[in-house]
Structures are given as structure tokens and as C-alpha cells.
Amino acid sequence: MSNNISSNNPEKIHFMVKSTPPRETFHQDMTEEERNIMLQHIAYWTDKQNQGIALVFGPVLNPKAPHGLAIIEVENKAQVPKLIAEDPAVIAGVMTMESYPMKATLPK
């Protein structure tokens, strides 16, 4: 059993994944190439959402520190670095990502 006691599913564990763009103005001044990469990034996380891995994801519109946020549900922590490494925005060097374990409480 996981130590994630707040989850409704004790076989799953949760992580918060934060993505950081290359600059504060990124959402306003992306190049065409960056925009195409970000469309791939969105498609990647939409697929993960459809698989039940990404519970929620999207941009956080903090004007001083814009970033992306995802809450993911996985079976083991070894899945997290792989999910991050396979993100098209990470592969292209457009985003950096960090993750932290989370004791998520989900709706019933």
C-alpha cells in the first residue's frame, strides 16, 4: 500500500508537476516553432489525461512567475521521470519540469 493516505485509491500515488517556461513573457511572445512545440506538449498531456494519468493540467497565469501545473496519478514514483522526459516541450528544451509527491484528496 502507498503512503499516500489521502487518496481514494490506495494503489495510486500522486505528484504535482511544475513546468517552467524559458522566459516570463513566453505565453505572449512564443515563436512559431515554440508554439508548435507547445501544441505537442498540450496533446501529450491530453493523452495522459485520457489515460487517467493527468488528473488536471494547464497554465498558471501568475504574472510574476507563469508556469504550468499538472496533478498526476501513477502506480509508482519511477513513472514520473519518464513522463517528464517524454514531454515534447522538455525534449525540445522549451520547458523545464520538477515534480513533488502529493497527498491528494480526490472527489468520490
Automatic annotation (TrEMBL):
InterPro entries recorded: Dimeric_a/b-barrel, YCII
Biased composition (Polar residues): 1-10
Signal peptide region: none
Region (Disordered): 1-22
Pfam families per the UniProt record, alphabetical: YCII
All residue ranges annotated as the YCII-related domain in the record: 27-95
Family: Belongs to the YciI family.
Name of the protein this chain belongs to: YciI family protein
